[in-house]
Design a protein that fits this description.
The protein is α/β, with parallel strands linked by helices. The protein has 7 helices and 8 strands.
Length: 245
């Protein structure tokens, strides 16, 4: 996400802080995956209950790029009645920023790590294990979509400027409802990735929504950033809040 949305989210957070923040709880925790301790930042409603859960997955830049925005997105989800966990999946490989070689070597390992995060969050007393979602950005979207092709526990995916690798697209028969968000001027992940996913899901009669933003690159800017943010929240409301997967 780009500068404008960052400012928008921060301002929204400041406006709501006095009234809404007492209603959510922010903590730091961890879980075990493949013999490693994986850190997780938790943003949860304070009131008792069983809520849908969303894992927030950063991109190749780790939390150094977009960390504050991801946290505020998770906060907003918690305000709206979700358990949101920002997963430090790079802890599995000691990665700070992933280059193509690291991604190729570690992709499958990170998928397992995220799958273990789903297991951990689903065991919480305040989580409805039948309503689990993924919110991914770039590399986090590739991982979200890949895992969703294999893991039937996932009820919804929102993916920003990502794609589904060919090995996971082959012989696809089931897939959770997916929101595809991409810019047609993206020179990091070409918009062709979004179009391929759109065509695949359409051909299989699988549920999805797509919004391609004209002139936007790998980070959305201006009004399109806010539009994507609002679409994401509405999508989760539709498929996690009101539906049981």
């Amino acid at each position: 996400m780009g500068y404008t949305l960052a400012v928008t989210i921060v301002v929204l957070g400041m406006i709501r802080a006095s009234a809404a923040e007492p209603d959510i709880v922010e903590t730091k925790g961890s879980y075990e995956s493949q013999g490693k301790t994986i850190a997780v930042e938790k943003f949860e409603p304070k009131a008792p209950g069983r809520y849908p859960a969303v894992l927030v997955l950063h991109g190749a830049g780790g939390l150094a790029i977009g960390g504050p925005e991801f946290r505020e997105f998770a906060r907003e989800l918690a305000r709206r009645g979700y358990v949101a966990h920002l997963v430090h999946y790079f802890d599995q490989t000691g990665t700070v920023r992933a280059d193509p070689a690291t991604i190729g070597k570690s992709f499958a390992t990170w998928m397992i790590t995220i799958g273990d995060a789903l297991t951990a969050v689903s065991k919480q007393d305040n989580v409805d294990s039948k309503r689990l979602g993924l919110l991914g950005f770039s590399l986090g979207s590739y991982l979200s979509l890949s895992l969703a092709s294999q893991d039937r526990r996932i009820s919804a995916v929102v993916e920003y400027f990502g794609g589904l690798p060919a090995p996971f697209a082959w012989n696809l028969t089931k897939f959770p409802p997916t929101l595809i968000l991409h810019g047609d001027a993206d020179d990091t992940v070409p918009v062709a990735e979004a179009r391929k996913l759109e065509k695949l899901l359409e051909s299989k009669s699988l549920p999805f929504e797509i919004r391609v933003y004209p002139g936007q690159g790998h980070r959305f800017r201006g009004a399109d950033e806010k539009d994507a943010y609002d679409r994401s929240l509405r999508f989760f409301e539709k498929y996690l809040k009101t539906s049981v997967g």
